[in-house]
Amino acid sequence: MASAAAVLDDSPTRATVEELQARIRSMQATTLDTRTIPTHPAIAGLLPGGGLKEGATYSVDNSATLLMALLAGPSAAGSWCGVIGVPEFGVEAAQHFGIDLERLVLVPHPGEQWLGVTAAIADVLGVVVTRPPKRASDSSVARLSARLRQRGATLIVLGPWPQSEAMLSLSDSRWSGIGQGNGHLSARQATVTVSSRAGRPRSARLWLPDLNEQFTEVDRFTQPEATSRHQTYPHEAHRYEAHLHEAHLHEATA
Fold first, then answer.
1. Nearest to residue 237, comparing CAs of 158, 156, 183, 162?
2. How far is 41 from 14, CA to CA, in rounded Å?
3. Model-level pTM?
4. Measuring CA to CA, which residue among 169, 115, 159, 166 is closest to residue 137?
5. Residue 19: its pLDDT value, please?
6. What single-letter DSSP state applies at residue 102?
7. How confident is the model at residue 253 (pLDDT cuts 50, 70, 90)?
8. How far apart are CA 54 and CA 35, in angstroms?
9. Are 173 and 253 spatial neighbours (Cβ–Cβ below 8 Å)?
10. What is the largest CA-CA distance in the chain?
11. CA dihedral in degrees (51, 57, 58, 60; nearest 10)?
């Protein structure tokens, strides 16, 4: 019996098959180039492919500021964003960090229908944030993933999520601005690490935010004024965190 490869070699349609394969490869390359959405420069370099991808899912390890840094780029570029199941999401902080409130949809209490609400919002918005109150079934995750790919929406999940493109986490967080028992938080340095299936984890030391309420990479040679002030450690920062534009979402810092 002739092998399949031999049959294909002898087939008069081989040229057509090769042409189709070439076209598919070309389309895939174009798709990969055009499916990356605008992402904040401080974060983009850490992500696989240099940015957030349409149709993909990302996980954030319980950090409100890191979440807002991810939303700032797409929002500034004109994308509509939705936040589901995060009632303490600070809109004042979001606005200060560059998120357009006129293109922001909040669903604070989706209840037991959180997965259906997330899927429905993903049908009409470009970037959707959700915080699952419980683990979703494998079949539900698969259906939602297919819907995201079909609609070209990007999902950001607070917490772990199967099949995520990457997990972003924050560690070694140090705040500035608190003096001897008084003052207010003015800036923070933290290490952001992105772990993905595409390769080894990537890390960078970032200002989240700096004195000008911007997300920037820490310059090891010329650091802003904040580094000369008294620095608080995670257990102290937790007590004062609400002073930073009422973000209200306590962040887990290592």
1. 183
2. 46
3. 0.73
4. 115
5. 58
6. G
7. very low
8. 5
9. yes
10. 85
11. 140
